């Protein structure tokens, strides 16, 4: 027993000495050995916790799920109606990307990188991640930090770490800047142009211009604004909870959209009129040929339009149209009065 205790103590001392040294190769090899064991242990404990919840809190979970089921059935009805309309869009524009686009992965925390630091964590690595590329981490609906693959391990840098950097917009004017982690629930925004108006209580969101986050993801609130040389610096209080880093959403691709790879020339629009059958086409052609007149080469075609080409002044005929000739003659006959007959002169009429 004494020899076993001595061996265990020696191994613990060797591990503590190796971990205290800042040799990345030693730490990477140790993490490569220890992290799979931690991950398996975490999966086992999570399964046991889920089973215990399922047996102990059955009544509460049933009531909660029944409420959620009613809400989801309502949303399902709305989504089915929406999907039917989207199908028509895909018929017209077949080059649109099909949904869902798998550009978000779920990752969980394995452990902290260092025991005395709460800003760097080791995460479970989803498939298809690239080395040395920065990925965005979202906790719920707010920014939690960034992630990067190094030596086949996925490292997470929370918003309190100085390695966490991404582009943001601040205030109503969307002042651009770079957010950098400083400390506990605190970040600073550097390189804000002087002419932009940034005030306390302004909201800060991601810009989506750095290929790390989507646009308009909440980051925090401005608490202080300073002027340094030719730029402004804003201090912000972050929304994320750095002391409970459990589950995160990792953004694989920020550019994946519905119109990715879309060719505007490839559209399938239906003809405005249905095609006529062969008999109907022949009849219509014969009918048109009988009504058409042959036009010579130099003959000018009449302009067919209900609008006159030019009106210089008001036309009297339009204001007072002429009455028909028959009506005019009838009115003239009525207006003629009979002439009085003069008595014939006689020779006896002396007076």
Shape: globular
Mean pLDDT: 76
List low-confidence stretches: 289-321, 345-351
Name the structural class: alpha+beta
End-to-end separation: 183 Å
Task: Please summarize the sheet with the most strands.
Answer: 6 strands, antiparallel, barrel
Order of helices and strands: HHHEEEEEEEEEEEEHHH
Give me the Rg, rounded. Answer: 43 Å
What percent of the residues sit in helical stretches (DSSP H or I)? 25-40%
According to DSSP, the number of beta strands is 12
Enumerate the strands of the largest sheet in spatial order, edge to edge or round the barrel: 1-2-5-4-3-12
Strand content: 15-25%
Count the DSSP helices.
6
What does this structure look like?
By secondary structure, this protein is α+β, with helices and mostly antiparallel strands. It is 33% helix and 24% strand. The chain is built from 6 helices and 12 strands. It has helices at 2-20, 24-56, 58-92, 278-291, 316-319, 325-335; strands at 104-112, 120-123, 135-139, 142-150, 153-158, 165-170, 175-183, 186-193, 203-206, 218-228, 231-238, 247-251. The strands form 2 sheets. It has a 6-stranded antiparallel beta barrel. The protein has a 6-stranded antiparallel barrel with strand order 6-7-8-11-10-9. Strand 6 and strand 7 form a beta hairpin. It is globular, with a radius of gyration of 43 Å. The N and C termini lie far apart (183 Å). 16% of the residues are buried. Residues 289-321 and 345-351 have low confidence and may be disordered.
């Amino acid at each position: 027993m004494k020899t076993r205790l001595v061996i265990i103590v020696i191994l613990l001392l060797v591990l503590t000495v190796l971990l205290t040294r800042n040799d990345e190769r030693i730490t990477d090899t140790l993490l490569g050995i220890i992290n799979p064991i931690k991950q398996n242990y975490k999966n086992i404990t999570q399964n046991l916790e889920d089973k215990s919840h399922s047996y102990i809190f059955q009544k509460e979970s049933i009531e909660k799920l029944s409420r959620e089921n009613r809400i989801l059935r309502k949303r399902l009805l709305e989504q089915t109606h929406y999907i039917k309309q989207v199908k028509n869009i895909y018929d017209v524009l077949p080059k649109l990307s099909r949904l869902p686009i798998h550009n978000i992965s779920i990752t969980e925390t394995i452990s902290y990188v260092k025991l005395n630091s709460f800003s760097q964590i080791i995460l479970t690595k989803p498939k298809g991640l690239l080395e040395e590329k920065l990925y965005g981490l979202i906790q719920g609906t707010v920014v939690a930090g960034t992630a990067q693959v190094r030596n086949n391990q996925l490292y997470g840098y929370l918003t309190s770490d100085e390695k966490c950097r991404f582009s943001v917009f601040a205030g109503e004017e969307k002042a651009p800047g770079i957010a950098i982690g400083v400390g506990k629930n605190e970040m600073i925004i550097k390189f804000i142009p002087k002419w932009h108006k940034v005030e306390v209580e302004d909201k800060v969101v991601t810009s989506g211009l750095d290929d790390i986050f989507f646009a308009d993801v909440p980051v925090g609130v401005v608490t202080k604004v300073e002027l340094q040389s030719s730029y402004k610096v804003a201090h912000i209080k972050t929304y994320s909870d750095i002391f409970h880093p459990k589950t995160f959403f990792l953004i694989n691709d920020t550019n994946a959209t519905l119109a990715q790879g879309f060719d505007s020339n490839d559209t399938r629009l239906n003809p405005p009129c249905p095609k006529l059958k062969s008999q109907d086409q022949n009849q219509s052609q014969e009918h048109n040929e009988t009504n058409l007149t042959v036009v010579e080469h130099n003959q000018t075609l009449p302009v067919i339009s209900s609008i006159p080409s030019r009106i210089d002044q008001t036309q009297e005929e339009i204001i007072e149209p002429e009455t028909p000739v028959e009506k005019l003659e009838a009115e003239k006959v009525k207006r003629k009065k009979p002439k009085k007959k003069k008595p014939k002169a006689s020779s006896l009429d002396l007076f």
